[in-house]
Every structure is written in C-alpha cells, then in structure tokens.
C-alpha cells in the first residue's frame, strides 16, 4: 500500500511503518466477500492503529480513524441492506470518535456509514482518496 504523502505522517505517528504486517487470521464470515482480498490486505497493514484526530479540517471536520484488529461479519450488520449488489462491504474500522464506520468495497472505494443517521456515503473512489478525505477533512464525493 502506498499511502498519500499528505497522511503518511499521521500513520507514522500512530505506529505504522513501511512493511508492517499485523497478525490477521480471524476471518469470521468475511472470506466469502468479493472485497475480502482488498479488506484483508488493509487490515494486515493497518489493523489496530488509531490514526489522526477529530476536529477542524480543510473543508469539513477531520476525523480520527481506528482500524479494526479483527473485523467480523457482525460489523457489516448496519450496512448489509444498504450496499449495492456485489459491493460486499468489508469492515475496516470506526471513524470520528466512533460515530462512523468505514468499509472498502469490491471496487476499492472507501465508504462510510454515518452511525447516527444510517446514511452510507462514499468517502473516496479509492482507499487512498477516502482516507485523505477522512483524516484531513477534505470534501467527499457525492452522497450515495
């Protein structure tokens, strides 16, 4: 994974380093998802990290992100009926002090479930774009 230079310092401060491989063996019903290979790779690299801070951002509030150490199929319950057919959202973690949950889909997009209102939003067309939007408070693409 090549992190955008704009967020790399935040990941380094959280304990990430190039070549990091978190132990990820518990798949708990996620292996069947079309997004499994993308999601598992992200959890192996970033699992357990708490990156950034919630607060003022560039264009909207910035969010902290906390990657799951061992995501499970139960983490998908809130979005299973909202996802597009074939999207197979893979749960990556929580954001904005736990008020949002974020996912990667089979196409590699980063999506966010706004827990208070249950809206499923596209934060970025790629993980890299979406993580910049979350951590830096950049505007997101259109709402799904």
Describe this structure in words.
The protein has 144 residues and is an alpha+beta fold. The protein has one domain. The protein contains three helices and six strands. A six-stranded antiparallel beta sheet has the order 1-2-3-4-5-6. The longest helix is centred in the first third of the chain and has 11 residues, at 36-46. It is globular, with a radius of gyration of 14 Å. It starts with 7 loop residues before the first helix and ends in an 8-residue tail after the last helix. The mean pLDDT is 91.
Number of helices: 3
Computed over alpha carbons, the radius of gyration is 14 Å
**Succession of helices and strands:** HHEEEEEEH
The end-to-end span amounts to 26 Å
Order of neighbouring strands in the sheet with most strands: 1-2-3-4-5-6
Shape: globular
Poorly predicted ranges (pLDDT <50, ≥5 residues)?
none
Number of strands: 6
Residues in β-strands, percent: 15-25%
Organism: Lignipirellula cremea
Pfam families: SUKH-3
Protein name: SUKH-3 immunity protein of toxin-antitoxin system
């Amino acid at each position: 994974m090549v992190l955008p230079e704009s967020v790399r310092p935040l990941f380094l401060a959280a304990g990430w380093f190039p070549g990091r491989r978190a132990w990820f063996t518990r798949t708990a019903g996620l292996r069947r998802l079309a997004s499994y290979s993308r999601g598992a790779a992200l959890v192996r690299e970033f699992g357990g990290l708490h990156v950034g801070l919630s607060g003022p951002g560039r264009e909207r509030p910035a969010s902290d992100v906390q990657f799951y150490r061992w995501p499970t199929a139960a983490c998908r319950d809130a979005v299973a009926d909202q996802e597009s057919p074939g999207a197979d959202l893979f749960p990556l973690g929580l954001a904005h002090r736990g008020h949002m949950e974020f996912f990667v889909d089979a196409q590699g997009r980063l999506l966010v479930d706004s827990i208070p209102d249950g809206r499923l939003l596209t934060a970025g067309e790629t993980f890299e774009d979406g993580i910049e939007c979350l951590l830096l408070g950049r505007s997101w693409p259109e709402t799904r």
